[in-house]
Design a protein that fits this description.
heterodimer, A: 483 residues, 16 helices, 19 strands, B: 139 residues, alpha+beta, Archease, Possible Chaperone, Chain: A, domain 1, three-stranded antiparallel β-sheet, globular
Chain lengths: 483, 139
């Protein structure tokens, strides 16, 4: 049973738990009255309070409106720690799927132009992008030295292999690669799990989806992103596969020991962490960077496989169809960034666990083509309704360490979703609404049905009202592949 | 044989509760439950055998390390496992022989992609007559 936690409304869409006991900072949750009710049903708010205990945490332990129960950190959690104040790194603040993220590709194609080829295109995507449990062998198995290159160079490795173009890198968060990756900090087990999984989507809530740009809210940003109403776009949602999962599992063990070694007092064992400048902390950061780079290479490779499917089915070249990467964002990651704290610029480690970076116009890390409007933020919804493209703001920079929400969040457990969809032919129901779907697992369609998720629009409206991102466009699905 | 376990409701992930008379049986049931989630365990035949050794600091870590190792065998060797003979066990060490077969699309249906075995709410508890644990999988 969740404990009662004192919470005060401080802004229209912001509630605060004051710092008491071992909390070093208050916890702040961005939400609405309606969404807050759901939050109170589980322990996710308590998890946000627990995060406030981390050594070196700055300003607030933050939670986005899609907050739900995670491991140690809530999903939707953001925390910045300062190395100069004994700040820590906590693998739970990144999650098992290191650099799980989303990429969006724009096209010049309309739904009408694709016409009856939509089903064939979806089938080709399903053949060429391996999905499902233990998905493997999209490309040849990576040897140890090739895998090392992936982990050091990320998306750049994929582009050099012919899986994309230079322009793709410029439109990827951090250019598809974070520094200080060190492959010697990755276990043999992780390397073996990663070897066969490059270019695979996996399962669960991961997907590849074709959408129609359904509505534009912010014409200037939409124009900069290349999004036009009525045109097809493609979303890819996945992460670092077994490679990242194993790295997280490996380092949770290391961190359990570090907590004792450095006498860190934590309210939950799963928040296990180590000082940023300790050998344990630095080793994890180096291994995490390897997994983050693996994930960027993975999404880059998947995009390449998908573009090949477009070219094959529609008989036109990438450029002729106007296929261009809009952006690729991570939503499970920790990175060193400069933020203004107490009036001074400081370099802090921002943990984003189910939260998206949302940098403002003019920020040096906002890609040049988007410098005037802000960084694209990609918020996938469920497979039957809608997804959103947002843009980062100066308010996000001030209030949430340049972060915003990441998705809808589940409403029902998988078993409950299966129960409620029993007797329904989900594929046929989606088809009657203009969405073609292929999924590997027999239960996937029931487990991932729209009714299992909160409506992502409620989440997006909160961040828009709070000003920590602005709505740019709505995407409506027309073709989906899942695990 | 179906392992003794029950699925516990969890919004975002999947948890199983296992009970057993001994620690060895508890860890075997947990592994059986995990492979029954991945694919129907009754479709798996014990054609190949592998030995597994695990070290840990306590039973919770032993459980997580054991299941993570079996998950590793599945992802890297595509081995679906159905038999778990635990030959030695205490809170810090386990030696076992496990049996199963390579995944065959014609006979096996894979259902749940388990990313990781978590410590979430994990307590290995035992009284004189019973051992219990609830294991949450990140999926």
């Amino acid at each position: 049973m969740p404990r009662t936690i004192p919470i005060n409304r401080v802004e229209e869409c912001v509630w605060e738990v004051p710092a008491t006991g071992g909390m070093r900072v208050p916890a702040r949750i961005y939400t609405s009255e309606k969404l807050l009710e759901a939050v109170m049903q589980d322990d996710s708010l308590q998890q946000a309070v627990n995060v406030a205990h981390l050594p070196g945490i700055q300003k607030y332990s933050l939670a986005m409106p899609d907050i739900h129960l995670g491991y140690g950190f809530p999903i939707g959690g953001v925390a910045a720690t300062d190395p100069a104040q004994d700040g820590v790194i906590s693998p739970g603040g990144i999650g098992y799927d290191i650099n799980c993220g989303v990429r969006l590709v724009r096209t010049d194609l309309t739904r009408a132009e694709i016409g009856d080829n939509l089903t064939a295109l979806n089938n080709q995507l399903f053949r060429d992008v391996p999905t499902g449990v233990g998905a493997s062998k999209a490309i040849e198995k990576l040897g140890r030295s090739a895998l090392e290159q992936v982990t050091l160079r990320g998306s750049e490795w994929a582009v050099e292999r012919g899986f994309g173009i230079q322009d793709d890198l410029e439109r990827t968060e951090n250019l598809g690669r974070i520094e200080n990756a060190d492959f010697s900090k990755v276990s043999d087990h992780a390397a073996k799990r990663g070897a066969e999984q490059m270019g695979t989507l996996g399962s669960g809530n991961h997907f590849l989806e074709l959408d129609v740009v359904d509505e534009i809210f912010h014409p200037e940003a939409a124009a900069a992103f290349g999004l036009e109403e009525g045109k097809i776009a493609m979303q890819i949602h996945c992460g670092s596969r077994g490679f990242g999962h194993q790295i997280c599992s490996d380092y949770l063990k290391v961190m359990q020991r570090a907590v004792e070694k450095y006498h860190i007092d934590l309210p939950d064992r799963q928040l296990a962490c180590a000082p940023l400048d300790s050998p344990e902390g630095m080793d994890y950061l180096a291994a995490m960077a390897c997994a983050a780079n693996f994930a960027w290479a993975n999404r880059q490779t998947i995009m390449h496989l998908a573009i090949k499917a477009f070219e094959r089915i529609l008989g036109r070249k990438r450029r002729d169809m106007g296929l261009r990467l809009v952006y690729d964002v991570a939503h499970n990651i920790a990175k060193f960034e400069n933020h203004k704290i107490d009036g001074a610029e400081r370099r802090v480690c921002v943990h984003r666990k189910g939260a998206t970076r949302a940098f403002p116009p003019g920020h040096p890390e906002t890609p040049e083509p988007y410098r005037a409007v802000g960084q694209p933020v990609l918020i996938p919804g469920d497979m039957g309704r809608q997804s959103f493209v947002l843009v980062g703001t100066a308010a996000a920079m001030e209030k949430t360490f340049g972060s915003t929400c990441h998705g809808a969040g589940r409403l029902l457990s998988r078993t409950a979703a299966l129960k409620q969809t029993r007797g329904h032919d989900i594929a046929r129901e989606l088809e009657s609404r203009g969405v073609v779907i292929r999924a590997k697992g027999r239960k996937t369609l029931g487990e991932e049905a729209s009714l299992a998720y909160k409506d992502v629009e409620e989440v997006v409206n909160v961040v828009a009202t709070a000003g920590i991102a602005l709505k740019v466009a709505r995407l409506r699905p027309v073709a989906v592949i899942k695990g | 044989m179906k392992p003794k376990y029950e699925v516990v409701e969890h919004t975002a992930d999947v948890a199983v509760k296992v009970t057993a008379d001994t620690a060895a049986e508890l860890l075997a049931n947990a592994a059986g439950g995990m492979f029954d989630l991945i694919g129907d365990i009754e479709s798996i035949r014990p054609r190949v055998r592998r030995s597994v050794e695990i070290d840990a600091d306590d039973y919770e870590e032993l459980m997580v390390n054991w299941l993570t190792e079996l998950l590793f065998r599945f992802e890297t060797e595509h081995l679906l496992l159905c038999e778990f003979d635990i030959e030695e066990i205490d809170s810090r060490h386990l030696r076992a022989t496990v049996g199963g077969e390579e995944y065959d699309a014609a006979r096996h249906e894979l259902q749940t992609d388990i990313k990781a075995v978590t410590y979430s709410g994990l307590h290995v508890e035992h009284s004189d007559e019973q051992w219990t644990a609830t294991i949450t999988f990140d999926i």
